Amino acid sequence: MTDLLPPMKSKLHGKVAIVTGGASGIGEATARHFADNGARAVVIADIQDDEGQNVAASIGPHRCAYIHCDVTDEDQVKSLVESTVSLYGRLDVMFSNAGIVSRKSQTVLDMDLSLFDELIAVNTRGMAACVKHAARAMKEGGVRGSIICTASVLASRGFDVGTDYTMSKHAVLGLMRSASLQLAGDGIRVNCVSPGTVGTPLTRATLGVKEEEMETLVEKRSRLKGVLRKKHVADAVTFLASDESEFVTGLDLAVDGVYVAAC
């Protein structure tokens, strides 16, 4: 008689996760992927209330909740984390993904600093607030948690326009590297995922292309055959969230079809 192997646990079995910017794009894809990979609960945080509530309802009310959160307001971020712990007893994963892009392409010479402040408030200050409060909750709960921040392929190179966006994403790498050193003793891992060009609504609006034109553009920006999709980024984030990466911290994981390496 052949011995039966014990059933394999799903990647995120029993874990409680927050996904900021989870109402659409990469955040939505990752929230769904977390649920599909066994997360006990996924909390979607966003300012797009109708979209976020619809995503949470489609995942399932017993497995997913939606909480309004503007990451530029630290009190809202703190409340988000506290509400998650109150609802589910712990926090294992923070995917700090909320972000915006430049409203216009800006060089150093023509940079509108009021728009710069708006972008930094979300992409840098908001990211720092999420890391801070997630790490505090994990430490207080004795959880060996995982914090993942969305950076960008532009976080490790310069760009001829979009100076403010590029600066904000470079700062995310600095935050991640410092936090990974500071939190390692508590067993809390901090990593980044850096997507290349993915066909999200935000990207299409920024580049000014139609949905049917997006795949061609995305394919041109990758040396791998095929098209970079939200699923590919969600796969990478799920790996970083899971115990499969239990000794991975301080990493910037590019998901870009070798775009950065080719620069």
Structure notes:
By secondary structure, the protein is of the alpha/beta class. The chain has helices at residues 25-36, 49-59, 74-88, 113-141, 163-183, 201-207, 211-220, 230-241, and strands spanning 16-20, 41-46, 64-68, 93-96, 146-150, 189-195, 252-255. The longest helix has 29 residues, at 113-141. A 7-stranded parallel beta sheet has the order 3-2-1-4-5-6-7, with helices on both faces.
Spell out the key features of this protein.
263 residues, alpha/beta, 8 helices, NAD(P)-bd_dom_sf, SDR_fam, Sc_DH/Rdtase_CS
What is the helix fraction of residues, given as a range? 40-55%
Mean pLDDT across residues: 88
Distance between the termini: 57 Å
User: Quick one: how many beta strands?
Assistant: 7
What does the main sheet amount to? 7 strands, parallel
Order of helices and strands: EHEHEHEHEHEHHHE
Alpha-beta content class: alpha/beta
Low-confidence regions:
none
Shape descriptor: globular
Helix count, per DSSP?
Answer: 8
Question: Major sheet: order of its strands?
Answer: 3-2-1-4-5-6-7
Estimate what percentage of residues fall within beta strands.
5-15%
CA-atom Rg in angstroms? 18 Å
